[in-house]
Task: structure prediction
Amino acid sequence: MAASSDGASMAVKVVNDTTTTYLKTCLPPFDPLFLWGSASQLRQLLAEPITPGLPLPEPVATRLFMQHGELKGPLVSTAASDAAASADALASHVRNVMDLEPRDGSEVYTARSTGIVVEDTLRLIKKRLPAGAHIWMDRNTPDASGPTLESLRPDFLCWVDGALVFKGEEKALSAQLGDAIHELTTKISTVWAAGLVLGKRPPCMLAYAAAGTILQFFCIQQPESGYGVKATPISGELDLNTALGRLRALTASFNIWRLLAGYASQAPAMPVASGCISRSPDGLRTYCVLQGFFRKSIQNFSVEQAPYASFELLQDVYGKMSKAEHRRNIIQVYDVDGHVGGPQLRDDVYTVHLAPVGNPCHGPPDGLRMLARAVSGVLAGLAALHSEGFVHRDVRWANVIFLPAEMRWLLVDLEHVGLNNCDCSGEPYPLRAWSQRTLEDGGKYTFRSDLRMVAEQLLCWVELDDAGKDLRKQLQAGQLTAAMALQHEWLGLFLALEWNSF
Result:
């Protein structure tokens, strides 16, 4: 019994990591309206001390406090309180930042420093606080489809419910800080793509520019003139070679989280996240919204896409759709400074830049009036294609976008186009959305096939009035051209109504 008693008295006391509790105490979210406020106000918020102070393991704290007395208070030794002593993950992270030895001469070195100070801070909190479910991050990497995506996408990206609220640019040398700041305004510089959220002004974008061992935070806002964007400093130039510079950068990173968490409490969900790369399940297709346009890429083009539409055909269709009479009615190529926006094919990788950016449709809009406007938009796109001898061949809601600012719908995804009366009787056809009635006799796909897809994909599974049923019936029977369908009474009735009557 005595031995057992001695063993019990020598047992190690197990203390649970209280990082989550500590973070909840010291990181209450800021008011979300601050992101619509002034740069001077944001500067004050980023410098606000974290209370209680950030815990630091006792040996490191003793050393640093002896060397830099001003650190004591904003930082607290784990020996100072039970709360600090048990916040193990947080204390370990603070030690990693305060013991950082930054280097310059390579963007990899710069990214390592900002990764520890900024990104690791946000990821530590994300794992532990409720707002983390709304926030995700990514870093830019070289892209197999060429340099465009790499050069136009920020180095660091952080979204809140799909809104790009925080980003960063990194350069190798401290002397290149001006270059990093310049890229804050030339790459994606708005929280969401223009026109995607009706009636709501976007907040400012938070950002950092890092060059060598220097880190500085900014807010990116549209000036009152409404033209361009401006990056305004909301911190000084923080030298990560100094203990005080690292502490200030760490404090700013924690307060960035508080701003993000505040925004998350009332953020509208974005249907399209600027700068976020979406990939098909097989990884061969990528999609990314950049500054003012949408970028599509298809690898292994000769195998994956050319059997449906040759590169030369895609060049032809996008070129003819750019005519003045078609530009408003169907998706358009977008030329970026220094990059041709039209279809490109290099090393069997196909890329195209497209505009405008819209909200993807996952099904019919609510109400017959909205549905009529959506169908009218699709028919206008088909009329443009048909007037040049092309057929779309993949008419369905997934290939329609909605432009909220203009309250109209647009036909997209021309990568399955063909020529009228093309033979689709053999491989690789049929396409997934085709029905037994899609093709004409002999396996031919014609203008009428596109219009049957409108009837079967866009006008089915909804309760139509008599005029709507009549349009659907005529489209199914091949009795109308796209131009004639646009004159149908069902569309005319609803198109005549003003939007403010909805």
Summary: Confidence is low (pLDDT under 50) at residues 1-14, 498-502. Residues 19-264 form one domain. DSSP finds 17 helices and 22 strands in the chain. The radius of gyration is 28 Å.
